[in-house]
Amino acid sequence: MSGNKTVLADILQVREVKQKAISLIGLQGVRLEDQHELFRGLESRLNEIDTKSNSYPYLVITPDFRPVVGVEAGSFGKVPLGMIAYTIPADDYVVFRFEKKHIGDFWSNICSNENQASYNIDLTKPRFERFSPELQPSGMVEWHLPVRRT
C-alpha cells in the first residue's frame, strides 16, 4: 500500500498546529451517516444557543464514530434541550487541507496503518473539521487529526 501515501501527498497540504480546547454546543448522532441530519437540525436551532461565538459549524468524529455537529460557545451556560455540550480536547493536531472533491480518497487512504504511522496521527482520539467562510466557498476542506503520543 505504499502508493497511498503518494496519492495523498499529491492532493494534500499538511501542517501541524497546537490547538487549544474548543467548547461546542450542538447535536450528537449515533452513526456517521447521521451527520447530514445533524447539520440540518443545528441550522434550524442555532437561535437557541445563546452563548455561541459564531455560526460556523464543526463536525467532530468521536473515537466510537458518533458524529457531533456544533458551534463554538463562549461558555456552556444553558444547553438547549436535546443538545449537548462537547469539548474538543487541546492537543497537537495534523491539519490536512485538500479540495472537497478528494474527501473519499482522503478517508479511504488516511486510515491505513501505513498512513497513520507516516503522518503520526492517532485515530483513537476525536478529530474534527471546521466549516468556515474562508474554506467552503473555495471548495477546500481542513481535517484536524490528533498527533500520536509516543
TrEMBL record:
Lineage top rank: taxon: Bacteria
SUPFAM superfamilies listed in its UniProt record: Probable bacterial effector-binding domain
Classification via InterPro entries: AraC_E-bd, Reg_factor_effector_dom_sf
Residues in AraC effector-binding domain copies: 12-148
Protein name per the record: GyrI-like domain-containing protein
Native organism: Paenibacillus hemerocallicola
